[in-house]
From TrEMBL, chains A, B:
GO terms for biological process: NAD+ biosynthetic process. It holds the Pfam family CN_hydrolase. It comes from Bifidobacterium samirii. Coiled coil: none annotated. This is Glutamine-dependent NAD(+) synthetase. The gene is nadE.
Length: 565, 565
């Protein structure tokens, strides 16, 4: 009987931070060895972080990553771990084309002992890998104690043919994959079904190690797992936190024995936690300790404030109430109640004196006067950000961003927008979920994410309700003129969000939307709003390219990594 | 002797505007036929505009383009042009993969008579074509009056092998290419050398028809040409304007006779004109009639105002002087003089009362107080934009954008930034060039761009100088505190710009920069500034992706076209 123990090291890396990433890999390799593992697998591009975008094109960066991989192999041997097989992701160079490669290296015996280059390069959605990397030529497998281990990197298992088909033809005892698969709602099951299909194809268990953590606009959810050759889940790591799991492969057994299996998360909890982790990591990786945001008493800013409190603690949240002559008393109370529930700092900065000062000079009316109010608030939020070194949070949701129902340089101000991918109806659902969780005893900071432990209830809430019920239940209003309601300008959110989900999230065209049963007037209104709002969503000014390399479309670097190389 | 006349239709299209593009094609086809042409070639993706980014992925859009191509073929026949061969670019569909194709169709005899799909798909710099299109399988040639015409689309001639190599092996009498090749400084010669190389490869003349006009961040410069088999230029169209040129191919002649050859432009004139055309087309295609911008008396806003006056006339430029307690009298005078020279509307909006109103509440100091001044100005500029329906222009140059030496939501405010790709030293050079041109009699609107005629001197300038000499010659200052100079925070521009050109425009890494002879301290300062400023340049808030399709990295639509489908 051949038995061999694998460790699944689900870690959170930072793009470009070779030193910190290497230190973490070394630490997890030690823990894997202490746990009896012969082989430890890390996520895709562990050493460099992922996705590294055009950082891959810098020869100096690739050289530094190569040196680091060699130094790490030597350090592991010096630590007495030369017997361990450590599968780490990094960037390589294809010396024929001088193009970068998305690479797995096996560190063993003090050296970079083997390597494999990703073959299928995703080039859709958030991925631009065909732009950056050249494709590896084919499959790689290696033997440990007589066990044949085939490898693959992420997209390699999403497309038919290629390395997995080659490995199936050769025969392997296990397929070990490293992944940088970003979170999206419902993807857990898609991944698991896919893995089951590939396990059947190679007729062997499949190990799926995924990255965890936030990187700019992306959140990686972890949830690493092993499926057996028949598709049964053998082990599964929790989502949204770092984790070291183990899997004992028995090559003689028809079926592998099950290990720890983390339960599925509630769908609302899952999305809420993704948003919190994205914010928490954006702050940590860019070295922000606190946030500031406008608290209007409305539901969007309330949910964002709750997420921020969960990410970094209420004491690191600066709420700013900026009432105008059109703000209702209820709104002001709701904002104050929320800040008290979160234990957040809370200032009131009335905007009327500033509005009057501008109007003395400018005498605006209509939309220009409405935007002026939002922009005065933007200036105040940025003043707090600059004066106190806080990250300004934008509180816009996906429905209003989609329709352009926001003021550029006004409420759209901020370095990070935690709910920009949540439709308004989802904002309500998550707010209700968070209140239920608070009632059930999960206070601030009790979430299940990197750096927290599940079951830690965090700071208890005064009465078990985080977000004032009134903020959830009142009709949405921008309060920029008397009696204003969102529904004056937009279809009711219940309808709007269904059209937006179809048009944006499922990419239905006009004919498809009509076939979906939406009425023509609504479809045309929503399409017109969404299409016109494109420049506002992109927000940075356009400008002519006149040199070989201009900022913008030419040069694409991760925001978070920019100062790390 | 076989002689055949080609027309080169160098036109300006708008992405997504199928109706207007088709009408223009029809008009040029008529003019080509009147000029005796048998074949007329248009630029890449003429019918749809270019680049259409993810608009290509919408099946409804592809269907509409297909219907339009067929209707156009029928209309041309109904107009009595069924004998003409009209080569038009459009989007197609690969029915095997259901992916879009970058396609040339030959309209003839009332139908879509032949087609060719682009084989090499550029996927670097500003291009993402491998993301969007599938590659056409191979070469296409067709016969007209016994003349064999091979075709290619843009990137097809930039890479070795593929369709051009196939055509060389088959033998053709002429290689006719349609292009969407964006402007960059010095590219004219690169294109011409490349074309000469390909003409030699197929041993036949090469026709190069290029798009002209601005589209979002890109400017297409036209400059269509024909090179003979020995690389000699046979004809060349002017840059930056629409043009219909003709070329008579004589298949029996060893060398073709030369036609009209537009002279090369002065390098400063070329870059200046590219910036003006980019702005002019951005405005026209987004239906803006006028612009507003802050006039500080400094050189950046002066140059931008001059460009705007050249683009849409001084009467459509709203200058806003927003002096603070730190603004010098000289600056205020220079701003007023500039506005007078341009015939621009000019308002003075002192910011001190507003600054005092904010400070009563916020009591800021240091950088926060400096940014406050810039943001008050941003609010005022946007108030003019909203109240009068004007496009707000951002006046930042590439040096300050690169180093983050600007205030986000302050001076960075605007929908279009005409000089965002010009280093500061280039801003000075172009300002001096524009004054020389004014002295030489070229008034406002006398530029050589789409919609203007060369030699039209435009509105004469009062004293032949457009930009106040003082704005050009004084030491640059943001004037946000007493005695402030840019050189307090940045290396001198002369040095800074050389480092930036090497680091950004030529992608040199740290080791390369040291080898270039720059001192270590300067290199590290500049790299740190540039890398840290990444988020400010991108400016829109980051936010977690939680759905299948989120705004941002997932969904990439042209700004200009967004409301046209």
């Amino acid at each position: 009987m051949t038995q061999i123990r694998f460790a699944l090291a689900q870690i959170d890396t930072c793009v470009g931070d070779l030193d910190a990433n290497t230190a973490k890999i070394r630490d997890y390799a030690h823990r894997a060895a202490q746990g009896g593992a012969r082989v430890v697998a890390f996520p895709e591009m562990t050493l460099t972080g992922y996705p590294i975008e055009d950082l891959a094109l810098r020869a100096t960066f690739r050289r530094a990553a190569w040196d680091k991989a060699n130094a790490l192999a030597a350090d592991l041997a010096a630590d007495g771990l030369s017997d361990l097989y450590v599968a780490v992701g990094t960037v390589g160079t294809d010396h024929d084309s001088d193009k970068p490669r998305n690479r797995m290296v096996i560190l063993h015996d003090g050296v970079v002992w083997a390597r494999y280059d990703k073959h299928f390069l995703p080039n859709y959605g958030v991925f631009d890998e065909a732009r950056i990397f050249s494709a590896g030529p084919g499959a790689m497998a290696f033997d440990v104690d007589g066990v044949r281990i085939g490898v693959a990197i992420c997209e390699d298992i999403w497309q038919d043919g290629g390395p997995v088909a080659e490995l199936a033809a050769q025969g392997v005892d296990v397929l070990m994959t490293m992944n940088g698969s970003p979170y999206e709602e419902g993807k857990t099951h898609v991944r698991r079904d896919l893995a089951a299909r590939r396990a059947a194809e190679v007729d062997a268990p499949l190990i799926y190690v995924n990255q965890v953590g936030g990187q700019d606009d992306l959140v990686f959810d972890g949830g690493s797992f092993v499926v057996d050759r028949d598709g049964a889940t053998v082990t599964r790591a929790p989502m949204f936190m770092e984790h070291l799991g183990f899997f004992d492969l028995d090559t003689d057994a028809a079926h592998q024995s099950a290990g720890e299996i983390a339960p599925d998360m509630d769908p609302d909890e899952e999305v809420y936690t993704a948003c919190v982790l994205g914010l928490k990591d954006y702050m940590a990786k860019n070295r922000f300790r606190g946030v500031c945001l406008g608290l209007s008493g409305g539901i969007d800013s309330a949910l964002v404030a709750a997420m921020a409190a969960d990410a970094v603690g209420g004491a690191n949240v600066q709420g700013i109430s900026m009432p105008s002559m059109y703000s209702s008393d209820g709104s002001k109370d709701d904002a104050a109640d929320l800040a008290a529930n979160l234990g957040a700092a809370y200032d009131v900065q009335p905007i009327e004196p500033l509005f009057v000062a501008y109007q003395n000079q400018l005498d605006l009316d209509g939309v220009a006067a409405e935007n002026l109010q939002a922009r005065i608030r933007g200036v105040i939020v940025m003043a707090y950000s600059n004066a106190k070194g806080l990250l300004a949070l934008a509180t816009g949701n996906k429905s209003e961003l989609a329709c352009g129902y926001s003021t550029i340089y006004g409420d759209a101000v901020g370095g990070y927008a935690p709910i920009k991918d949540l439709l308004k109806t989802r904002v309500w659902e998550l707010s209700r979920w968070r209140n239920r969780a608070a009632t059930a005893g999960m206070g601030i900071g009790g979430l299940h994410i990197v750096g927290n432990e599940r079951g830690d209830a965090g700071t208890p809430l005064p009465d078990g309700v985080m977000i004032p019920v009134n903020s959830i239940e009142k009709a949405p209003s921008a309060e920029l003129r008397p009696g204003q309601k969102d529904s004056d300008s937009l279809p009711e959110y219940d309808l709007l969000d269904r059209v937006l989900a179809a048009y944006i999230e499922h990419a239905h065209g006009r004919a498809d939307l009509l076939a979906d049963g939406f009425d023509e007037r609504t479809v045309d209104t929503v399409m017109r709003l969404v299409d016109r709002a494109e420049w506002k969503r992109r927000q940075y000014p356009m400008g002519p390219k006149v040199t070989a390399l201009a900022f913008g479309r030419d040069r694409r670097l991760p925001v978070t990594a920019a100062f790390r190389e």
